[in-house]
């Protein structure tokens, strides 16, 4: 069952474009067992199932966690606007870039590692550093010229006003 069909608008069409393509199963080099291909196929299948439920994949084609630096977001629909809240803890406002490319809203940024001295000997590092990118496809009733963004305490809040034309096509159907 494809849960994307249940949502009123697929905000993530562009972001998941590459992820929907099937990944061919290739035998690992040096593998002698006939079950290696089956194991890889099961891994690919599990990643597809997890992706359908909006969960991060176990591993990408390159063996790393693809959503490690992927900020989580909430999208709220109101009568007059959409409100998108993006969690970017540990990222400074100057390291975030918000752009509009046709009907795509692109949030990019980088979480920078603090400088360390030669005296530091880490036993464990759990924080992630690097670049991130989220691509959101805007619905037809979004007023692209009026988009506003603010950044407070690690939360990027994007307000996308809605036009009344498309929204007027929505009506409630009484239940008999």
Automatic annotation (TrEMBL):
Top-rank lineage group of the source organism = Bacteria
Q: Which InterPro entries match?
A: A-crystallin/Hsp20_dom, HSP20-like_chaperone, Small_HSP
User: What is the taxonomic lineage of the source species?
Assistant: Bacteria, Pseudomonadati, Pseudomonadota, Gammaproteobacteria, Oceanospirillales
Report the Pfam families cross-referenced here.
Answer: HSP20
Q: Can you name this protein?
A: Hsp20/alpha crystallin family protein
Q: Which residues form a coiled coil?
A: none
Question: Which residue ranges does the record assign to the SHSP domain?
Answer: 64-176
What family does the Swiss-Prot or TrEMBL record give for this protein? Belongs to the small heat shock protein (HSP20) family.
